[in-house]
Amino acid sequence: MKTARFAACATLDAILRGRRGLDDLVEASDLDSRDRAFARLLAATTLRRLGQIDALIGGALATPLPPRAHKVQDVLRLGVAQLLFLDTPPHAAVDTAVDLARTLGLNAHVKLVNAVLRRLAREGRDQLAGQDAARLNTPDWLWDSWCAAYGEDTARRIAAAHLAEAPLDITARDDAPSLAAALEAEILPTGTLRRSTGGAVETLPGFAEGSWWVQDMAAALPARLFGPLAGRTIADLCAAPGGKTLQLAAAGASVWALDRSEARLDRLRQNLERVRLTAEVIVADAADWQPPHPLDGVLLDAPCSATGTTRRHPDAPWTKGPGDVAKLAAAQDRLLHAAVDMVAPGGLIVFCTCSLQPEEGPARVDALLTAGAPVVRRPIHPDEIGGLTPLITADGDLRSLPCHLAEKGGMDGFFAARLEKR
Length: 422
Prior knowledge:
This protein is of the alpha/beta class and 422 residues long. Helix content is 44%, strand content 14%. The chain contains 16 helices and twelve strands. The strands form two sheets. Strands 5, 6, 7, 8, 9, 10, 11 and 12 form an eight-stranded mixed sheet that branches. The protein has a four-stranded antiparallel sheet with strand order 2-3-1-4, with helices on one face. α1 (4-16) crosses α3 (33-48), α1 (4-16) crosses α5 and α3 (33-48) packs across α5 (70-84). The model has no long low-confidence stretch (mean pLDDT 96).
């Protein structure tokens, strides 16, 4: 029988060597809900602390493991994650790792797994105290990029924010104060409701009734940049899973929701049905699609490296690289030019990405303007985003960082720019 630890080990392998996504792998698991949650927690914790864990394992080995012993390395990683970051009793962490090694047919390495984990059970916590966690757990390419873009101090604060699990952020369909009381949630300056994680989302008050949806506070900001929406027609490009579509529809817009993936749009349709909102859902590549008439606005939440969502998706730093950023930036350019063509003169384009990489944010807007596109920047004002002035750049764009509002639990890293068609 497959155990949660076996599933976590397979998940780790698929992420680190197959570059697959954590949540997709967990959802595809045939485990029951409790084991699936534990498998995700174990894999996510290992990824979140991967640099520290590998440094500890390396220090406990007389010679490095060869590349072909990657399964042994993953068993050790999961064992260290339990020992030092999930507070599993040492005997249980060691014994279950040894059992996992045997299950995987790694009998020749059982003694090694046992010895390394027993040593780290004795010495690991003292070694942790001397580690530079923020730096160790950030791949070099990201660390160098963030230091260049934001400075080393901010890069360190970003990396430190990624070590904590994100809280649960909620967007209310209406009547946020009553919903906040029912959910025992705090209302943030932007209007997002925030509560600590824990328990199944589907069992929380108001979920079944469609009173709210899950959406990080930063992700909820771009849709607000259109101003009043009643009676306006807006296309939400790359719309699935649909948080921004729901926001636009709840604010009174007539929404065209596009995505290339039929499966992802099915989830959007389910969300629309649950919250009792409507939108025109279209399976199409936004780079090629043309609306039947010019639109009042376009929201382009473009495909990106998603490095700004590392708190929620700790696999992101380990499944992407600089080459991916370059390819995604080229796709963003195509989508931005298509978005401009969709909008009537005087209409707005809100371009956003959940990336911390400047190549996937301000550089794309600069490239669009340099190419002579008939648009101008319309600066964002603090009162549009809950008075959070530090989130506004010198160009008037939005740039949130995971370390912003740290005293309240932080937020995802997002970039957004508002453009008006001339």
